Amino acid sequence: MAAANKAEADKTTSSITACATSDNPDNNEEQYDKEALIEKAIKHHHNNELETARELYDQLLSREPQSLKLIYLRGVLSLDLKENQKAVDLFTLATSLNPKEPLFYEGLANAHTANKNSELALNSYDKSLNLNPNSI
Fold first, then answer.
1. Which of 2, 71, 95, 121 could form an SS bridge with 112, CB 3.0 to 4.6 Å?
2. Residues 68, 94 contacting (CB under 8 angstroms)
3. Rounded to an integer, what is the distance from CA 90 to the centroid of its chain?
4. Nearest residue to 46 via CA among 88, 77, 70, 71
5. 94 φ, ψ to 5°?
6. What count of other Cβ atoms lies within 10 Å of the Cβ of residue 107?
7. Residue-wise pLDDT tens digits, 46-102
8. d(CA 103, CA 106)
C-alpha cells in the first residue's frame, strides 16, 4: 500500500500545486524556502523516511494550515503511517476547502478503505469520478 500511495503522491504533486495558490506571492524568498522544504519532505517520504517527512510536513502545516498541497501530502503520509483516522480528517479538510478537486476525494476514499468503511469509501470514489470521469 505504501508504494501505491507514493506513486499517487508522485502523480498528484503537480496537480495539487496547480490547484493550490501561493499564500504570499510578494515574498519570493519565503516562497522558495517553503517549496524547498516541501521537496525535502517529499524526498524523505519517497525514501521511506516517514518520521522525518512527518516532522517536515507538520512544521510546514503549522505555518500554513490551509495549504491544500500540504494537507494532501500529509494525508498520503498518514496512510503510509497507518494513521487512518488522521488521513480521513486531512482529506475531509481538503475536500471542504476545495470540493471540486477529485484527487482529494480519491485520497478520502483510500483513507475510508484503510479504515474498512466501504460505504464511505464508495461515496468518495463516486464523488471523485463525478468530478473527473477520465481518472480510471
1. 121
2. yes
3. 8
4. 77
5. -60, -45
6. 31
7. 999 999 999 999 999 999 999 999 999 999 999 999 999 999 999 999 999 999 999
8. 5
